[in-house]
Amino acid sequence: MERLTNIDVNKIKEDPINIAKSFAKEYNVTLILKSASSIITDENMVSISAFGNTGLAKGGSGDILSGILAGLLAYLDLDIFTISNMAPYILGRAAEFAKEDIEEECILPRDIINNINRVIKEIKND
């Protein structure tokens, strides 16, 4: 986000919701600002996904999030804001499931991917 906006990362951390909303408005997009708590906004609506753990704070987790998002968009006939809320949830829950078997700091992207099916099964059972 720092590179896209030329706003210092510390400034983004001070006011992530308004910066995300502003970006979404300027570019007419739905934005997922991935962090410890991901912010999802389309400028008008804002939600926060607090699922996950520090296992997501490494290279590859954003790629997994993008893959989940693309898969949901291709598979489900739902609006982009709803899907943009589902993707961080699935990613975060998969990381939480991975933590059951692996220490948080040792979680790799493949461990998260390997737990996506558990999240899907959990969703279907609810």
What layout of secondary structure does this protein have?
Elements: H1 2-5, H2 9-14, H3 16-27, E1 31-33, E2 38-41, E3 46-49, H4 61-75, H5 80-99, H6 109-113, H7 116-125
Antiparallel strand pairs: 1-2, 2-3
Helix pairs in contact: 4-5, 5-7
Structure commentary:
With 126 residues, the protein is mainly alpha-helical. It folds into two domains: 1-50, no CATH class; 51-126. The chain has seven helices and three strands; from the N terminus they run αααβββαααα. β1 (31-33) and β2 form a beta hairpin. α4 (61-75) packs across α5 (80-99). The longest helix has 20 residues, at 80-99. The mean pLDDT is 95.
| Helix fraction bin | 55-70%
Major β-sheet annotation: 3 strands, antiparallel
Class per helix and strand makeup: mainly alpha
**Total helical segments:** 7
Which word captures the global form? globular
Unreliable sequence segments: none
Please indicate the percent range of residues in DSSP E strands (runs of 2 or more).
Answer: 5-15%
Q: Taking strands numbered 1, 2, ... along the chain, how are they ordered across the largest sheet?
A: 1-2-3
In sequence order, what are the helices and strands, one letter per element?
Answer: HHHEEEHHHH
Integer tally of domains = 2
The total count of strands amounts to 3
**C-alpha end-to-end distance:** 34 Å
Mean pLDDT, rounded to whole units? Answer: 95
